[in-house]
Amino acid sequence: MIRTLLSFTALALALGATTAHAQAPAPAAAYPNKPIRLIVPFPPGGGTDILSRLVATKLTESTKWTVVADNKAGAGGTIGISEAVKAAPTGYDLVMGQKDNLVIGPWLYKNLPWDPTKDLTAVAHVAYTPVIIATSVNSKYKTLADVVAAAKASPGTITYGSPGNGTSIHLAGDLFEKAAGIKLSHIPYKGSNPALMDALAGNVDLLVSSLPSAMGQIKSGKLRPLAVTSAKRSSSLPEVPTVAESGFKGFDVSTWYGVFAPTGTPASVVSTLNAEINKLLATADMKAAIQAQGAEPEAMSAAQLGTLLKNDYAKWKGIVEASGAKIE
């Protein structure tokens, strides 16, 4: 009788273990197990597009993941951000953010249905870059001092092209006007490439641009760089002076690029992405590729990038308001 009871007990325990095993949740699939989309909120050819495609390509090579850059341009980069915010927080939809779409756009587009500091999660900083003030190689302006002298002699007659009204690059131009005490005439374009083409053709006197967007034409000798807007010279163009060195002490305007994900993306996914992107930024190949575009690679923790976003978001509210920039 006892032996029979023990046999039933053993059978019950075995059945219970089998049932429990059958009911246990399956382990989560390893991330990633399908292609990752990196939304590029600007048109092809600009600085954001160049760096985004570099990250997507090199990350695919280094990890054997499939990372695809996807251009979703419009409204100063805010359309691409809007798409990222709406995406499922699974780590398969990322976006390349920077000052224009995360820091400046929200102060220009008053009815945006998202807040970058609340609706996005910082993943990894990629690079920063100065703005370049340049002109066609056929231009009469050889130095920034030439531009300032001419602008003071004939206020409002010198034109400069930018990627768009209210972009960080436009505002860099506006801050330069204020620092120099001059008046230029701003011509906004829909993206960096159209502004660049018109500057090369001489249709605008100056180009104010991200360095990655202009680097190819500078290296080819078709575009003459006059100054960079960062506090120190660019390692890519060490012979080009800063605006500060050109007589405007303390002038320092640069932009940054970072990967973001929708809020709610699992911390483990963010950690995986941050580690792989930072590992990539530490390689000699990636450093050289980024510097060749006129940008400077810089790794950060996800928390450090989040702090950078919050600080700049607060700081640039006043700059945008003082500029008088408006979206028409």
From TrEMBL:
Superkingdom of this protein's organism: Bacteria
InterPro entries, alphabetized: BUG (IPR005064), Bug_dom1 (IPR042100)
Keyword Disulfide bond included in the entry's annotation: no
Keyword Amino-acid biosynthesis: no
N-terminal signal peptide: 1-22
Gene3D superfamilies for this protein: Bordetella uptake gene, domain 1, Periplasmic binding protein-like II
Record's keyword terms, sorted: Signal
Pfam family, one: TctC
PANTHER family xref list: BLR1237 PROTEIN, TRICARBOXYLATE-BINDING PROTEIN
Family according to the record: Belongs to the UPF0065 (bug) family.
Record's protein name: LacI family transcriptional regulator
